[in-house]
Amino acid sequence: MFTKITRVAAMVGCALAAGTALAAYPEKPITVVVPFAAGGPTDVVARTLSQAMGTQLKGSLIVENAGGAGGTIGAGKVARAAGDGYTLLFHHIGMSTAPSLYRKLDFKPLDDFIPIGAVVDVPMTLIAKPQTTQTNAKDLLAYIRANKEKINLANAGVGSASHLCGLLLQSAMKTDLTTVPFSGTGPAMTALLGGNVDIMCDQTTNTTGQIKGGKVKAFAVTSKNKLANFPDLPPLASELPGFEVGVWHILYAPKNTPADVVAKLQSALQAAIKDPMFAAKMKELGAEIMSADRQTSAGAKTLLAAEISKWAPIIQAAKVYAD
Question: What is the pLDDT of residue 83?
């Protein structure tokens, strides 16, 4: 009898201890790995989210930039991290294209991570160098088709959002263009501003300031409908039926992270998304808040799986690979 009572007491004690540990989480700063350079579109969203989540968790979320290889270096780092809730990954659409783009990948997006929830979907814009003489999307696309041998399409590197949008653009136009990869969004934009490349497709988080400042010429958005930030820009789908691409962002934890920690992070993420500061910043950047069902672990994983299936044939048809 004594042994049985002792065992029950021990079990209760363990349960209470586990509850206390969860209540105390986080007991130290949480590192949020952004697999891209500081100052880029994904980094801006991650830092804004981290600030809002820190308020909810009564702790600190520190962004660490681990760029390179289209986001795979940072993602691999988190895949190998301890599943204790203190190392997270904030990644964009590149998580779904990596399995098709990279011949050697040291992680599996669907197996090595637990999505905490999807956060925002960032539409993209088709922009051109300031010297461009065309004034609307129809004329620009016609010019591109007629002069495809001398058109340079810039991107921020293999696996970047601008690279993926460029692949989809060429596929929809059935036109191959000379692609010029840069080492990041900043250098690609600088080249466009200087007239050294002709066109680029990039996120509103990166292009809004340049468009509104009149430094580049904007022709269309990649969303299904017009954007409030750019009421005069038509959806590219009006010229290329079915064309639609957004750069969604998901927060992940390593695969062995305890379910109760994931649940607490998910709750903090959902509350952070409702934070007026976060909402205002995303509106300013043209980023669209994800629907409530995608702000969950299950909803985010469904999105990731669907996007992996969507991009695989596009990348395979383009025969663009990276080692």
Answer: 97
Find out whether 67 and 37 touch, Cβ atoms under 8 Å.
yes
Backbone dihedral angles phi then psi of residue 292, each to the nearest 5 degrees: -60, -35
- In a 3-state reduction of DSSP, which class is residue 318? helix
Mention every residue, 6+ apart, whose C-beta is less than 8 A from residue 4. none
Write down which residue in 207, 238, 269 finishes a domain: 238
Classified as helix, coil or strand, 118 is: strand
Q: What is the predicted pLDDT for the residue at 16?
A: 43
Q: What's the token pair of residue 109?
A: 């997006």
Same domain as 38, residue 115:
yes
Element (H, E) at 10: helix 2-24
Integer Cα distance of 160 and 89 in angstroms: 16
Q: Which residues of the chain have pLDDT under 70?
A: 1-22, 323
- What distances in angstroms separate CA 283 from CA 45, 162, 227, one per listed residue? 11, 21, 10
The verdict on 130 and 206 lying in the same domain is: yes
Can the peptide bond before residue 26 be classed as cis, meaning omega within 30 degrees of 0?
yes
Query: What's the structural domain count of the chain?
Result: 2
Exposure string of 191-211, with b = 16+ CB inside 10 Å and e = fewer, is bbeeeebbbbbbbbbbbbebb
CB 166 within 8 A of CB 129: no
Residues 6+ apart with CB under 8 A from 304: 95, 96, 109, 110, 115, 250
- CA dist 169 and 148 (Å) reads 13
Record the pTM: 0.83
CA 196 to CA 215: how far, in whole Å?
A: 14
Integer Cα distance of 309 and 269 in angstroms: 26
Residue of 137, 217, 145 whose CA lies nearest to 176: 145
Give the tens place of pLDDT for each residue, 224-258. Answer: 899 988 999 999 999 999 999 999 999 999 999 99
* Closest C-alpha to 185, from 202, 168, 209: 202
